[in-house]
């Protein structure tokens, strides 16, 4: 899914690199954000021109009985949700307002391109490492109930729409 997102960004004129490191111990969240922060800092040092960091996740939407739910757009792709960190917990996150604006615009453009593909943007009182890079988004592409093909389809559209947005183009140009 990350490869697809990266490929579409590059195809759309946005230089992009894809970190394939897995974060967290044994497939859990334990230590995942600390490990991801180290990775982001390493990449920022190696590639100082990085302006945006996209932290890609798969959501864990569960039903009341604990079953994994499948989130789908009208077109059959997995749904996407942008999560924006803030300084609401007291930690510095200087660009959170700009990140929120980016997330809201991305969500609107995604839904214009494919009805229902973007779930509402989630603003949280935690930074999610979004204080490290000039601008950051956490994108939940699909959930544990979606197929890889559904997530890849969503990632392809997200990459195209995000590239258009970052390059100042209207989607579809």
Question: Please, could you describe this protein's structure?
Answer:
There is one protein chain. This protein has 173 residues and is an alpha/beta fold. It contains four helices and four strands, in the order ααββαββα. The protein has a four-stranded mixed beta sheet, covered by helices on one side. α1 packs parallel to α4 and α3 crosses α4 (148-166).
Nearest-integer average pLDDT: 91
Can you write the helix and strand succession as a string? HHEEHEEH
Main sheet overview:
4 strands, mixed
Q: Beta-strand level of the residues, as a percent range?
A: 5-15%
Query: How many DSSP-defined strands?
Result: 4
SS-derived structural category: alpha/beta
**Termini separation (Å)?**
24 Å
Strand order of the largest sheet: 1-4-2-3
Helix content: 25-40%
Q: Determine Rg (CA atoms, Å).
A: 15 Å
* Unreliable stretches covering 5 or more consecutive residues: none
Shape: globular
H/I helix tally: 4
């Amino acid at each position: 899914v990350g490869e697809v997102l990266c490929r579409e960004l590059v195809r759309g004129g946005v230089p992009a690199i894809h970190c394939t490191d897995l974060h967290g111990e044994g497939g859990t969240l334990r230590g995942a954000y600390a490990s991801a922060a180290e990775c982001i800092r390493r990449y920022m040092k190696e590639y100082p021109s990085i302006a945006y960091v996209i932290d890609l996740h798969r959501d864990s939407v569960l039903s009341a009985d604990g079953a994994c739910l499948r989130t789908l757009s009208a077109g059959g792709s997995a749904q996407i949700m942008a999560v924006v960190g803030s300084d609401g917990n007291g930690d510095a996150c200087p660009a959170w307002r700009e990140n929120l604006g980016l997330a809201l615009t991305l969500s609107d453009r995604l839904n214009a391109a494919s009805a229902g593909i973007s779930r509402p943007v989630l603003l949280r009182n935690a930074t999610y490492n979004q204080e490290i890079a000039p601008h950051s988004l956490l994108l939940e592409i699909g959930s544990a109930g979606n197929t890889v093909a559904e997530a890849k389809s969503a990632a392809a559209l997200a990459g195209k729409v995000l590239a258009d947005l970052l390059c100042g183009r209207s989607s579809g140009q």
